[in-house]
Amino acid sequence: GKLDRGTSSSSNADDDVFHPLGSNRETIIARFISCGFSMSNLDAASLRKAVAKVACTRRLSAKEPFDEHAALALNLDCYAVACAFGGSNNDGDVRCLLPWLDQSLNNSSSTIKIATIADSSQDKLVGDLYGRIYTHLYNKYPAIRKMVKSALKADLMADTTNDSSAIQNRFRARGGEFWIAIDMESSEVVGCIGVRQRKTKECEDQDDKGGPSSPFSVVEYEVQRLAVDDKHRGKGIGKRLLYAVYEYSLRQGILEKKKKKKGVSVKLLAVTPEALVNANNLYNAFGFIKEESFEGGLTMNVYCKTTMI
């Protein structure tokens, strides 16, 4: 709506466009995705960071500090700026509009591409990657060797008699998808990740004040087979692979919401050995919460990230 002296007048515009985006990052991302944007073309920053960077870029500075600076900084920290772009935007234009970005918004300078797995030749490359990256842990953790061998004989097993990807077919049959990270210069698969749907259940959210309950659906997905080549660690590949899974789960949740015409909670789960320090750190940095740990030949940590749509 249009603001006038502290009051708001109604607008005939689409509610999906002219509407408060949300009070947290996950809600804002979900709204952008529901409008057709990709997570690779989204960015958000605190308003203080955005203003400070713009002021620095434009060489704007106060002649002397004053008390209002502190008050302004605290106030700006209560807000954020979120931007979404189409995939065809020029990187220079994006950086001009968003000077606070530390790197290219769409990673156009990177030689690593994230894509769904395409054929049986890539199945073999995934098997080779997954079979070698954990070998240094086999002696200390025999259970990891067993887990890898089991994966290679099950959902990561290649089928050379067919041109299509057997890995993709298996994950899609379970309501999921499988992605790979490809080095475009060498055509080498340097990372992979999969997701499958676990279950959908119906719940009711009881009003704290005793009002009527609100029905909603909980859609659970599980991250599987996350792996990044040791030679390519530290390039943000694992984070980009997780973004692919997160965006996929949100899109499925949005479809569920449109179909059932009620709220949907997307619950993304991940189970990883505590011995895989980098994987645990990645889940924590991505906003997953560790729910529990259990013993299965070695200590396994269960992480969860929930987004209400």
TrEMBL record:
GO terms for molecular function: N-acetyltransferase activity. The keyword Signal does not apply. Signal peptide: none annotated. Residues 139-309 form the N-acetyltransferase domain. Gene3D superfamilies: 3.40.630.30. Keywords: Transferase. InterPro entries: Acyl_CoA_acyltransferase, GNAT_dom, NAT_camello-type. This is N-acetyltransferase domain-containing protein. It comes from Skeletonema marinoi.
